[in-house]
Protein 1
Amino acid sequence: MPARAGSLRLDTPVKFLKGVGERRADALARLGIRTAQDLLWHLPHRYIDASTVTPVARARVGDEVACVGKVVAKQVSPTRKGLRIFSAVIRDDSGVLECVWPGQPFLDRTIAVGQTVLVSGPIRFYHGRQMAPREHIILIEAEGESDPLAAGKVLPVYPATEGLSHKIIRSLVERHLDELVPLAPDLLSDPLRRSLELLPLAEALLAVHRPTSLAQAERGRRRLAFDELFDLQLTLSRARAIARRGRSAGMRFELRRTLTTQLRESLPWQLTDDQRRAVADIVADMTSERRMHRLLMGDVGTGKTVVALFGMLLALENDFQAALMAPTELLAEQHAATLTRLAEPLTIAPELLIGRLSAGEKAAARKRIAAGGARLVVGTHALVQESVQFQRLGLAVIDEQHRFGVEQRSALIGKGAAPDVLLLSATPIPRSLALTRYGDLDVSILRDRPPGRGTIRTALRTEAQRERVLDFVERESAAGRQAYVVLPVIEESERADLRAATTMAERLAERWPALEVGLVHGRMKSEERDEVMRRFRANAIQVLVATTVIEVGIDVPNATTMVIEHPERFGLAQLHQLRGRVGRGGSDSYCVLMAGDDVPDRLRAFAETEDGFRIAELDLAERGMGDLIGARQSGGFEVRHARLPDDEDLLARTRSLADEIIEADPVLVRTEHQRLRERVLARYPRAVEFFRTG
């Protein structure tokens, strides 16, 4: 039954709120809304300001605009290629505008004549002026409803789900807002809040849900972002304290300058400044009494492997073993080949342990590892099997560490008494985010690419230029080089408006009978996929058609061209990882984005830089912080309200404030911190292990 006036609490199940009931409660649960507090903190993901809406008549070709109008006509029409297009004509006081949604005929069931809709997207010219909306929102269902924008107010738009429109959510929030806001405790002291120029919590909640201006909504969001980052930094500060305590009993290596010096003198190139700094960081960690737990983060092609090798050789100098674990057999083989080449002047050969070895080969490798004869070991998760025993493991290196679960990483580390740990990542992350996402690690960053790498030229091309692009790929491949063609889907039936990998592979094989065309995608068995990749690496395949399974892949220095279909379907960081598959050798390489006629600004920005960290910042601004933080392997540290880089000042302030509090009260048991402890654990239940008392 609905909650009575005065009986409402923040932990009241949402199904008992007026206007909800069992059916809507199930839909709200899909959005993570299970209690009254969840509803209060379900914030708008955007706002519609009446002053920013463009009259239909003033929407010019090439502009990106938002328009509001009544639907006066609609239809679904097929094209000659079988694509079905939904179109609707909207009208406001100034004129009419056609809106088209290629490949989305299902919208005919949700958009109706007589509705008032907001549409936003680029204006183009195709048999007249039309918009291809990136977003649409139904503002008024039928005649007689009041227009929420008519009074010039700012309209909050909430994340919605099937069967529960943003309008219903907005009405539920509005209905209960005045009763819920006073129930939310404000845990910031007035002096601290004023010093940070933050709103009181009650004002902030009203500002985000019922703003009178976009500036007011932003002030409200900043206050909620502070609380969110504060809770996260308290958790990470406590995790750092535990990690420091757990690493205090690490082994102390001596820098004997035998193998490490031999490696430095044998390298045919000079280390970059970033590599030298990273090596110095690792040496300082390993020669201290504190156990190393460091993340080496470097853009594609910045030379992480050779930096890791210096650490591994330092362990070997001290009569310990070193192990490198990679997420796939292909990557493990690649690392083994690279380390073999680098360590050959030192007469050291790595031991390779992967699943595809014969039973006899694996047994022999395990025996050498257990006896200490295999000093430098490279493998996959096969390294963490119970049958694998190290005689004296001193350093564990884990490549693409985010692709391993916490248990797998811990299993490798557990093979030694207290080995130092070096984590490698080729995914560039802005430093501000790295300090949050990897708050319990020391971080070294590689930005500079070693000399001898070819440049990568990125080009944007339209459908009209397709034949010229394919002719270029053919010429490059016929000249002895290799190419990738990357698509977002596997089969045509997945999305009618997207080219698909299987169809593309068939067409290219017909077009280029003199070239061997291969295909890899995520539905193939891993053994089959790896075999295709090995053939591509050996140049038995000249053109490889692929989905994003190659995003983190092997080095093929001979691959100099990449064509990416439908690049608008990929995130910027993902595009950068894909582009990093070429440019691995000394030849100039090319990345061609088949971007269509309407090129988004984000793709233009991507094409203008090769700096992975700059692209990560663009990606962060586009996707928001929550998506990236939420991917953390060790638990759901999700950030929903904070935005980087906009909130970097809040991040820095919450980090220092959290460190002060955790140093004085490690598990938040003091009276003045108990409500803060409750809020942290309510937001991050998995953090309970960090704050156990007793």
Note: Residues 182 and 503 are 59 Å apart (CA to CA).
Protein 2
Amino acid sequence: MLQARNLSVEVGGRLVVVDASFTLHPGDKVGLVGRNGAGKTSMLKVIGGESVEAEGHVARKGALGYLRQDPRLHAQSVENTALGHVIAGRGLDEAAQRIEKLRLRIEENASRKNVERFARAEERYRADGGYSAEAEAYRIAHGLGLPDDRLELPVAALSGGERRRVELARILFAGSDVLVLDEPTNHLDTDAKAWLMKFLGAYKGALLVVSHDLVLLDRAITRVLHLDEGTIVEYRGTYSEYKEARKKDEARLTKIAVRQASEIKRLSTLADSMRGQTERRARTAKMLDSRVGRMRDEQISAPRAERSITVRFPEPPHCGKVVLTIEDLVKGYGGPPVFENLDFDLGRGERLFVMGLNGAGKTSLLRILAGVTEADSGEVRTGVGVSLGYYAQEHEGITPGHDLLWHMRNMSGAPDQQLRSLAGMFGLSGEIAFQDAGTLSGGEKTKLALAQLVAGKHNLLLLDEPTNNLDPPSLTAIADALSRWPGAMIVVSHDVDFVRTLTPDRVLYMPEGNLDYWNDDLLDLVSMA
């Protein structure tokens, strides 16, 4: 069970949630929706116990499984194998270690006391499913698109998307009474999403989920919490039913707001016309002023229309005909190479889509091309006049402790006013410019990272899942802007609509390294790769 009572959440000195109250019982499946920056992730951090509420109280009964939007694993977890990290979600790794210690103690001294301790620990381990734990962990991880061989690797050797799936597998394996999931479908292909839908459909506990995946919300949700301007409004039914109900509410509230504003204006004008006249009229004007004051106290605001943004990438600086050349590139993580003998080049203005299954080395390739990591062997050469910009799927370029403007200045020497205007183009305007970037929502971090690319005036962009966490209007605007931009791009994405809008020129199949011309028949494979 999960209950929020009069909950207020503060981020960067501003309240993003005010006096919210709701309850989740076992079997409830609730979607939390709202625009980027509305405060969804911040509220989930409070509910998950990661942040402290400004006011109010959150009560949790039973075990809580909380998936952050950007999971951060402890150093010990990163050194562990992926399978070990999943099994640790239920504490079975520690239980197995305890059994082994008790077994060794019996070898040293087979006393009745030591044998009984071992028997009790072994019986508890069996009852908790310890002996079937590996098979269950493999089943969940496989459902989320993690092959068996990837589970045997250290977490440190996995890509950012794979680490996120390992963390989700750990949470699902733990068998929590309450699940709080922030964008659980990020980095999942079609099959993995379908598996997750089925898992959540059969889940008996309470579920609170934030997702821009409308299919997930429509299939798994029975209630919706709409967050806007700090206020929570609850709707019963699926996401589609919520959309219809919300549309009717917005129309009704808009009419009321217009009617109230019109009446306030009429009474205020009438009161003003009576001032300075007879004493009786002056008293009437005072009474009207009091009535207007009460109406203003009770006045509602018209629902804010979903803000549309218009994004424009600047013309890329001129560069040579060939912007990038890759020869005999090899990369591994202590075992067999993830990819080897990779050869290709990229022409000026060309768009290359990188396709491959999870773990095929797509992110590893982009990190090498961006100079973040090094290849085991091979060569990467940029052409004459090439300026490279890299969008990392895990927002590695966002530094907590520094505000948005600081990040923009790092990419451009333009005046602050121009940089703030540029950030505003991505919907990052007002006080948010001075907010700690570490407290931004996932969607806002995505927008900031893209704004940094624009500020950098590049002619080659490396884009690794650039649409994750974006609300639909932002995603459409950014996809349209990139489709019109004439610079060169190397793109990794599971978003079919984004790739369709981008219309790549060629496709690079990983890990084989085969190149082919793009055709729209490949769109069916995008979400699966």
Note: The longest strand covers residues 14-24.
